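Q: Hi! First time doing this. I have a protein sequence and I read that you can turn it into a structure. Is that right? Here it is:
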Amino acid sequence: MVITTPRHTGHEHPRPRSAAVVDDIVAQLTDRGYRDTEPRRLVISAVAAQGRPFTAEELCASLPCVGRATVYRGLRLLVETDQVCRVLLEDRELRYQLSHQGHHHHLLCAVCGASADLEGCDVEETLRDAAAAAGFRMSGHWLEVYGRCSDCAED
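A: Yes, that's right. Below is the predicted 3D structure, encoded as structure tokens:
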């Protein structure tokens, strides 16, 4: 597994996301046949500006000029097209963040909410074997690893 750069919260300011990230996501969506609309761009821009995993409600609050249903539909589209991934923090509240696309898992700091992606999946075969031994036909899995990031481990 490869650990990618963590997304920290609480200890530093969020990294700015360039307009190029938004344009790239919009281009990928239009290549798949989705329209480039102003509300969708606003949702994508707000997602790209997030410096930490966020809830759907936080996204709605950051977009008072966009209807709630539009925000939720836009977020669902971004998840379905692998532009955004779901993150389940230790408090069991579902959050979202920009995705590194493709199957991956997360390292999540239980103190500050920092997130790092684990790309690749070395546990797939083990899980399939365990499921098969139990007479279960596995269709997928979702793994989150909780602990303390390097900044919080020092506290």
